[in-house]
Amino acid sequence: MYPELDTPALVIDLDAVRANIDEMAEAxxxxxxxxxxxxxxxxxxxxARMQLDAGAGGITCAKLGEAEVMADAGIDDILLAFPLWxxxxxxxxxxxxxRARVRVSLDSPEVAAGLGRLGGPPVEVLxxxxxxxxxxxxxxxxxxxxxxxxxxxxxxxxxxxLLTLAGHAYHARTATELxxxxxxxxxxxxxxxxxxxxxxxxxxEISVGSTPTARHAAGVAxxxxxxxxxxxxxxxxxxxxxxxxxxxxxxxxxTTVIGRPIxxxxxxDAGTKCLASDGTxxxxxxxxxxxxxxxxxxxxxxxxxxxxxAGHHDDLPVGTRAQLIPSHACAAVNNFDLAYGVEGGRVTTxxxxxxxxxxx
Amino acid sequence: MYPELDTPALVIDLDAVRANIDEMAEAxxxxxxxxxxxxxxxxxxxxARMQLDAGAGGITCAKLGEAEVMADAGIDDILLAFPLWxxxxxxxxxxxxxRARVRVSLDSPEVAAGLGRLGGPPVEVLxxxxxxxxxxxxxxxxxxxxxxxxxxxxxxxxxxxLLTLAGHAYHARTATELxxxxxxxxxxxxxxxxxxxxxxxxxxEISVGSTPTARHAAGVAxxxxxxxxxxxxxxxxxxxxxxxxxxxxxxxxxTTVIGRPIxxxxxxDAGTKCLASDGTxxxxxxxxxxxxxxxxxxxxxxxxxxxxxAGHHDDLPVGTRAQLIPSHACAAVNNFDLAYGVEGGRVTTxxxxxxxxxxx
Lengths: 360, 360
Known about the structure:
The structure is a homodimer.
Chain A: E1 9-13, H1 14-31, E2 34-35, H2 45-53, E3 59-61, H3 64-72, E4 77-80, H4 87-97, E5 101-106, H5 109-116, E6 123-128, H6 142-152, E7 157-163, H7 175-198, E8 205-208, H8 214-217, E9 225-226, H9 236-240, E10 251-259, E11 265-268, H10 272-275, E12 287-288, E13 294-299, E14 304-308, E15 321-325, H11 329-333, E16 338-343, E17 346-352
Parallel strand pairs in A: 1-16, 2-9, 3-4, 4-5, 5-6, 6-7, 7-8, 8-9
Antiparallel strand pairs in A: 1-10, 10-11, 10-15, 11-14, 12-15, 13-14, 16-17
Helix pairs in contact in A: 3-4, 6-7
Protein name (chains A, B): D-serine deaminase, pyridoxal phosphate-dependent
GO biological process, one term (chains A, B): D-serine catabolic process
GO molecular function, one term (chains A, B): D-serine ammonia-lyase activity
């Protein structure tokens, strides 16, 4: 299994990546909405370019540092889905605007006022709405409409739309619950925009949709944009939610068994410093591809400690390789400077995780 | 608060670091054992040098890549506490041995045989023992003594001692339970070494002790070496175990409030990509230094979402800075390429996290 690579290593199945990109692009096209994928999952300009070539209309970044990396690669339509605060970032944002169209999301007049003081053409902003995750934003309806009116009155910014992340969808227990959360995500924003219109503020963007909800939310009348990220790689969290399979899980950590202390235990050379701690303790949060009898017990920083089902206690001798599927692909990828692209079971390219760690 | 730094940023209180280094060095000296600190916490040659200058007798690394970074900085006495497997790593290990004294821990004849085939002077190995964490190693007593005999018979390796990590100590609920775990950690290995001696194999190293247990385990007769790592920075996990305080928590993430969507909620610009997901859900797993009324609710990748106690709903306006203490310092540090050393409340130096991500 990839003998040219030492372990642990991040391998990206580019065949699966292409299929994942196409599937989401088709879902967006079918509903006539813009797909603006979040690049926080892969952090690689090459893959952002593949998404754009397949029909994406711009990209989403969380942090300014990610946006700068993508702009360096020539990407010129970026939604910065994070409130910008402070002079150093505002200076960098002003420079970024010189070479790309950049919109920003925010949820406060304070952040809007900072952007408004930049000068130049008005900064296009989307107001973040709390559709149930309880992170940023006010609830839909009147609380958000009032905030939109307040921000719209600030010189130098133009409120172009509403944005939400239905992060609570990750906790959905059934497909029905997931679909319902997605529908609400879209409908709540559309209804709020109608309220804003009655207040005299016409909003032209309704931006919703994470990987679990995007395919549903895209179908809500009035939604203009979906921003899924994880779909390009998927992970066990997406598998658990029923929106991915082992075959579409494209990012894996190639690892080696370095200890078999007792027959029922195998220890891999990859722990949280490869796979991250996200999802720890959730049953099946780390899976060994093609090895359903391997059950991860716990991770230390450099060890993955797995239990083997009865009947497999002679399997996986020291030196055996396996591919571990992370619980959260975005977090796992952020642990690596370099990934290896594989196609047809062979390593075909090296991919730099160019925006890894770009948290500022 | 550190206006010269943009946020989020990793700040290291070097005054606290010096005190932490001295305190553990004194504990080791008092008991006459070697302190061989694990550098996985800081990953910085400068801090390893400070530990050595304060009396440490060599360092511990997990991965070969970490050891290479430390050897590049001139550190020449290294315990590699991880089984080495595969030709690429064995070649690198052979090169590393040319410039440093390197011991390796392992728990299998397979790994020992690989090392034994290297040639040159015998490779000094420590056999890992499972004192209750159930990761690598066999249980103490006869199972380990038999393994030691098997490995000692392999040409090219010399078994010099026993090693364990009492990782289960992290789950201790009381100081008494912690002390008892530490005592057992030491005594189990000493008793096993006596069994080996009766088998005709004299072992000269008994290597134990993580940060929670090191001060206790150092006092067990027969223990020769302790390997704590986290003590240099500490974290909320160490605070919860009663072996650290907010004052000795030296690694913090400097962050800014970027949203105050409702009076009881403040959102920081640092999430799991700064603080890691380790400890998620444990009460108080992330603490805001000096702000006891701030209770972290959840982290996303780039957001830290906190709830504020009644009476503080007007505090922390957008733009306020705070220092967040991570649950697991080692994991948080691994998210950053650069840290800022602070002394007396001022930034005095930049520290490169030179061995960040060195998982191979």
